[in-house]
Amino acid sequence: MSLSLWLTENKEYPTLKQMKDMSQHRSAMLQIILCGFLGVFGVHCDSPTNPSEIQVSYEHYRAVWSPDSSTIVFIARINNTQGIYAVDTLGSNLRLVYGGDTGGPTWSSDSKWLAFSQGLNIWKVKATGDSLRQLTNGGGDVRPSWSRDGKTIAFVRTGISVIDVATDSIRSLTGIGDYPSWHPNGEEIFMQVTSGGGTIASFYAVHRDSGTNRLVFTISAGGVCSFSSISPSGQELLFSLTPFTGVTQIWKVDMVANSSQQLTEDGGDFATWSPDGSKIVYTRITFGDGALWIMNRDGTGKRRLTSPPGIAAKSNFKVPD
To answer: What is 245-312 written as a DSSP string?
Structure first.
């Protein structure tokens, strides 16, 4: 598998309308070629692999760390109950927060509320599981991301929209974009725009008020990039990369050093940062596992957080919203 990064210099940034021409835009970019080898799976880069033959497990997924660092919430079906679960960061005190078929949750800045998607709308509930409230009724709303000051929730609705938490008013910022996460400057929303069948991912920072945008960099890979998020320092970016000949792995890009690193070798997905950026929680998707693991930001020190109930193979797994 090859991964190419076209990292922008501080010159002129293309607008989102110009993004479709990014494959021809090279003058303001530095290209770095990295090659990886999926030897741990016995799959060579040049070997044809039928994706339907690859078995992976997703038991616990879409984990996210609370801002006070005490709790991690995630989606799972445990004892036949689907919903949002919480666990302490050492793996103890597992409990159900909210039962239902939900999308990925996000924490409020005071760690007292969770926002999530359900039925293609955005909802919020207290971390104790009560005071459920619907925030949108657009019918196509997913992937909420709560701002660091607690005032705004960004989400995906044919692009990026935002909810004013105080007034419940909703504004559209962009007509395209996915996977919103908040820049530590508090004023910009980091988002991903894909082209080339998902193999080209351009990352933009969009101002929360004006909607003005700047291109940060572009990735071109032999696979599909997804579920990206910017680090609390604003220097690094996590994302999942699903190659055409192998299983999904977690990668990290250092946007200051202009370098990248593959963090998992045995299957990883849905990675998110700890509040201080020193650790990463993710789903280890190796067949027979599918539970949550924690690693250091450089990929070392991997340890199990939750345990799977048993083998639950899912070939051609549909990525949850």
So the answer is: TS--EEEEEETTTTEEEE--SS--EEEEE-TTSSEEEEE--BTT---EEEEETTS-S-EE-S--SS--
Q: For the whole model, what pTM was predicted? A: 0.84
Q: Is the pLDDT of residue 118 over 70?
A: yes
Q: What is the pLDDT of residues 79-114, one digit of tens each?
A: 999 999 999 999 999 999 999 999 999 999 999 999
Query: What CA dihedral angle connects 154, 156, 159 and 164, to 10 degrees?
Result: -30
- Which pLDDT band holds residue 196 (cuts at 50, 70, 90)? confident
What is the fold of 2-315? Answer: Neuraminidase (2.120.10)
